[in-house]
Structures are given as C-alpha cells and as structure tokens.
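User: Fold this; tokens only.

Assistant: Input:
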Amino acid sequence: MTEKYQAERTISAIFKEQKQVDDVIHRLLDRDVPKDHISVMGRNFQSETRISGFISKRDVILGGLRTGAVFGSLFGSFLSLLTGVGVLFIPFVGPIVAAGPIGAVLLGAASGAIAGSAGAGLVSVFTAMGMPEDKAAVYQTRLQAGEFLLMVEVTSDRTGEFQLLLESAGGEEINIIEKALDHPCPGRCNKPEDLSPEVRAHLSPEAQQLFMKRYNAVLNENSDEFNAEQSAWDTVHQQFDEDENGVWSKVKISV
C-alpha cells in the first residue's frame, strides 16, 4: 500500500480547449495524482444541453453548488472522473462548472467574497488562496471568455515534473501556490477547529454544529468530501439565513 498522498502545492494553468483538459486529467491520473486533488473550472463544456439551456442566475443559489447525476451526465465523461461536478453563478463571470476540490472552496467563499455585491468575483477567491492579484484577474478574464482552468495539488518534490506536464499539454499562465487547496475537514469533523477557516468564518456556532453533523453523516455513507460539504451547506441553508455580515446565523422561523 502507498502512503497517503500529501499535497503541499497547487499548480494552476489555463487551457483554451476542452480536449486539452481531458488529456491532462488522464495524464495526471496515470501519474498517481488522486482524483480528489484535481480541479477544473469552465463555462463552455460541451454537452447535449448547453448550460444556458437549463440554468440561470435565478435558478442557481449563490450560497451553494447544485450537484448530482444530471450535471455528471451532461458535462462529459472526463469530469465524472473527478470528485463531484457543480454549477455556481459567479458575478462578472456567469455560470461556472466546477469539478474537484475547487468546488468546496467556492462553497465556502460563496457567502463571502463571491456573493458580495462589491466583490471582485473569482479574483477575491483566488487572491485569498495566495495567488497574485494580476494573475487572478487574468484567470477570471479568461474563464469569462470561455477558456478552462485546471488546478492540481502536488507534492513539493514533484512540482517541476507536473509544471512541465501542464506546459507540454498547452497550459498557459501557469501559477504555483505554496499550499494545497482548503479541503472542508481532514476526514470527519469532530470539533469546529476541524472546519476550514473559510467555512468556519461564515457559520455561527449553532450552524457549525449542524454543518458538522450533516457532513459526517454523508461522509460515512459515501466517503466523498465534495458531496458531504454540498449536503452540509444545503442543510445549513434550509435552517438558517445570513446576517448582515454574511454569517449563517439567523434561525429560520417556520410558518
């Protein structure tokens, strides 16, 4: 048995064509990068039903991703290799398909930087992750233009290898962040401190307890962090409303 994969850096790159992304994902998996350390974002994934045909700003909840079989069946087989597929409406960009752990990052940010009317959309999220602002702005612009962002979390000793892989596959605007993406919890969430800072900052103590309870229940069922986090956020949104600071703290009153 191999040791648990210890991701220490995140390499990102822009690709102009979906087939390039498909190729890179397969090459990364062939080199033993776990699927839950690969993320993809894009607007224009080819499918029988265009994104604009079944989703709109009104239909998408800013506080969470819509996931499930319908999205997995529409967005191509290679996305199904990753840990979950969802759609989020992002200011300045529009509906974005997110697959992999970047979906969890967006879920945590959706109640903060992304959703704020004065925010800068994905630029706020990327800079919070440690990306230079000028690079973040380029990424947002190119995603808005219909190109694709791929992010892979790697061990520090293989950074050069995977950077060359992305470059050889046509990756542009390559960036390296000196940490892995935030995952919601290191396995089960046993205490609030186990929650990622982005998630914890947007939940009241009561909402944190509800989040952890639902997260652990779903994680026990299918061992999928993405689905567990999505379900946990859904449960929080069903029972709480946001306050003026973007914290889910107001208990909904049944009528």
